[in-house]
Design goal:
CATH class: Alpha Beta
Largest sheet: 8 strands, parallel, barrel
CATH architecture: Alpha-Beta Barrel
Helix content: 40-55%
Bound molecules: pyridoxine-5'-phosphate
Radius of gyration: 17 Å
Distance between the termini: 11 Å
Strand content: 15-25%
Strand order of the largest sheet: 1-2-3-4-5-6-7-8
CATH superfamily: Aldolase class I
Shape: globular
CATH topology: TIM Barrel
């Protein structure tokens, strides 16, 4: 069964709207764990628009499940990651103007920069996952860079119209997932996953970790964080038990 990574960036986004101390993503992480989260994910962006350095420091001490730090392959952030040594870093592309992470990381087009970052993280004992599009060339280069995992971008699947278009995107994820696993990589997936579209992705053979943020935080506003995570976890459990 795939594990559930809960991305709590949006909790920090609400706090930063007023530059105050609440809601605290550290509290959200604790509630997410109580709801069944297997991984807590945060993205420390260069512009610090939501998660702050303090959040990552405190989460590093308090999170009892796996902490997954998303970051760009940039020297200043790499330095922070190497000092904090979270169990897992996911390297993502980052553009200041974007609302959220848009495409996957172009590993093939930025080998030297990405490799320098991976090497530093590996030296610090941090496991690395690369957030990439479901594309064999990107997977092949990821394998050559010796990372443990790839996270396939599920955005195109999430954005596709329900029906044949979505089915085609699902098949691309399945095929790329198979290629990643055959290449010896651990398979993660994420972006744009919701309570409505998660089940087929949770059923992709070998899917090991799903990272979900927006949909869970949106539901949490209505039913509370612990309950929102519990409901998502139940769907993932159901997806694997009904196979
Ligand atoms: N995975 C990665 C690498 C991401 O950058 C994000 C968004 O921060 C997610 C998963 C979660 O996406 P969403 O918020 O759409 O669930």
């Amino acid at each position: 069964m795939a594990t559930l990574g809960v991305n709590i960036d949006h909790v920090a986004t609400i706090r930063q709207a007023r530059k105050t101390i609440e809601p605290d993503p550290v509290w959200a992480a604790a509630l997410a764990e109580l709801g069944g989260a297997d991984v807590i994910t945060v993205h420390l962006r260069e512009d610090r628009r939501h998660i702050q350095d303090r959040d990552v420091r405190v989460l590093r001490e308090t999170v009892q499940v796996k902490l997954n730090l998303e970051m760009a392959a940039e020297p200043s952030i790499t330095e922070i990651a190497c000092a904090l040594r979270p169990p897992q870093v996911t390297l993502v592309p980052e553009r200041r103007e974007e609302v959220t992470t848009e495409g996957g990381l172009d590993v093939a087009g930025n080998i030297d920069r990405v490799k320098a970052c991976i090497d530093q993280l590996h030296q610090a004992g941090v496991e690395v996952s690369l957030f990439i599009d479901p594309d064999e060339r990107q997977i092949e280069v990821s394998r050559l860079l010796n990372v443990a995992a790839v996270e396939l971008h599920t955005g195109a699947y999430a954005d596709a119209a329900v029906g044949p278009a979505q089915q085609r995107e699902l098949e691309k994820l399945e095929q790329a997932g198979r290629f990643a696993i055959d290449s010896g990589l651990i398979l993660h997936l994420g972006h744009g996953l919701t309570y409505r579209n998660v089940i087929p992705v949770a059923r992709i053979p070998g899917a090991c970790e799903l990272n979900i943020g927006h949909s869970i935080v949106a539901r949490a506003v209505m039913v509370g964080f612990q309950e929102a995570v519990r409901e998502m976890k139940l769907l993932i459990q159901r997806a694997s038990s009904a196979q």
